Each structure stands twice: as structure tokens, then as C-alpha cells.
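Blinded run. Sample ID left blank on purpose so nobody reads anything into the name before looking at the predicted structure. Input follows.
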Amino acid sequence: MKMISVRCIFLLAALCLGSLVRAEDVGAVKTRLEQRLPQVQALKAQGAVGENNRGYLEVRGGTGDAGAVVAAENQDRMVVYAEIAKRTNASADQVGRARALKIAQRSQPGEWVQDEAGSWKKK
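Blinded prediction complete.
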């Protein structure tokens, strides 16, 4: 039940943020992504978050600050995916799904990844 709530909140946030995404300095977004990377990697190693099949993070287990990190990371990824989509005449969803495949391939053993069919597994 908790997982369904987290997913619903994520989807709602993604829809809201998608309509609010404005032309933001992609350089600033990339800097934030780089600065947040150690936190994201630590949460993945703990099993607290995983990479879903749409190119975004999802909370998998409960540490208090995981939700805030996931929300910030996903908001920045959304901006990057939208920018790439604009340049490549693709949709942001297509970009995210392609990115998800690459992320899953590079994931470390023991990290949560979601396959294309939606099933979660530890790599």
C-alpha cells in the first residue's frame, strides 16, 4: 500500500512538474545532478531507492531523507530529458525510457532496477 502511495505521489508530481518545467539553465541542472550524485549512490547502495523503467528514481525502502533527494533528482532529470527530447524530436518519455536502459546496465550489484515490464529486481 505504501509503495502504491509513493508511486501515485511520484506520478502526480511528474505531471505537475512537467507542466511547470520552464526553460532553465541546463548547466545549473547538471551541476545539481553532479552534486547530488554521492547521495543518490549511497541511497541506491542502501537499497532505499531504485531506478525505474522510465529513467527516474523511486523510493524502495524507508530512510527519512530519501524522498527529498528523489524528488529533487527526478525534477532535474525531467528538465534534462525535456531538453534532450526537444533537440532530438523525441518525447521526454522516450528519452527517459532509453536512459533507464543505460542506467540499468551500469547499475551496481545489489541495486534495485525495474525492468521494461515493470518488475523490480536487485541487479
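Unblinding after everyone has recorded impressions. Residues 15-21 have pLDDT under 50 and may be disordered.
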